[in-house]
Amino acid sequence: MGFKNFINSKKLAALTAVMMLGGTNLLMAQTAASSEITDEQKSQALTNAGYYVLLFLLICLVVAIVGRILKVYELTNNLQGKKAGTNYNKVMGTLFLIFLAFGLVGAYWSFTVQGSMTLPEAASKHGVQIDHMFTTTTVFTMFVFFVTQILLFGFAFLYKSTAKRKAHFLPHNNTIEKVWTIVPAVVLTVLVVFGFTTWRSVMNSAEVKGDINIDITGHQFAWELRYPGKDGKLGTKNYTLVTGLNNLGIDYKDKNSFDDLKADTLVIPVNKSIRLNILAQDVIHSVYMPYFRVQLNAVPGLPTFFKFVPTVTTAQMREKLNDQTFEYKVYCAKICGGGHYNMQKIIRVVSDAEYQQWLTTLKPYLSDPLKKELKLADAGQQNSEVKNRLALNN
Ligand SMILES: [Cu+2]
Fold it and tell me: Per the database record, which ranges form the Cytochrome oxidase subunit II transmembrane region profile domain (predicted)?
């Protein structure tokens, strides 16, 4: 056998495929078993891998035997001068039609069943824009999907090869080349520009006066909230100042820090611009507020922010959903560790008056034990040097 024939050999290709499949199975079995310790489990995993390799070989054998039987049947028919029994073009054409029908029913099922699992009604200003963009893109792409699938499978059935029909060889056609280049290019440009302008209007959000600044800090496994005090400003933070009591590492050399407030619930006034400063202390987390169409990673060492305007209060949404127990929530959308599922906090959207009232109930972040730790027990000592507690704790 020449080298070229050797490379092209179907048997060799089949053998390589089997070896690769077997190898992958073994590797997967070993990876899965690596966390297990006992030899019994390891041998069990190997037995499972061997079982799947054998099953694969068996299926290959059955397919090959069926193929041979059909071939023998055809040859016998030919020898007896009978016309070819099965018209495989007809079989394939019909299979294409069946596949199209199943595909369309499947697509319909997916729209009706999974469609009801999509995000709920947007409760923020920019959320409506994002939903609009999503709907437009879906309509465009679904139209193309249905038309192309029906044409592809329908044509394969309608124009299957027959004894009378001869295939037309079309080496080149400028008109159709132009159509299938220009039409998708124009449609995609419209979609991309639409997406780009929407994205810019959402993310082009410099800080302006009147924004309500709130810090949300993620750590394994909770969100910490910090509101500014009467001055409306949040004090600076420094990770080297993190201690058990000062778990956000707030820098009390900054006077803005003194009236900062601690909160357990993210209460926000309706129709006001909220600026969420997003931070992380250990691994990457992700602020996820589906009703407000907000999702942004919280990356250690890389403070980011997201601005949004809530438009539907919790009470209004309860009415809409006819569910008096409904609460908006902020989740973590990154699998950040074993307790990841714990990272949720209630968001309550209220009227401005209710918000102001709620602010008065908040306790300052600078608790009495923290004052003691920072040696700030006496109000007159506010300017005293704050030592690096982290260094002292080591
Ligand atoms: Cu997380």
Answer: 111-206
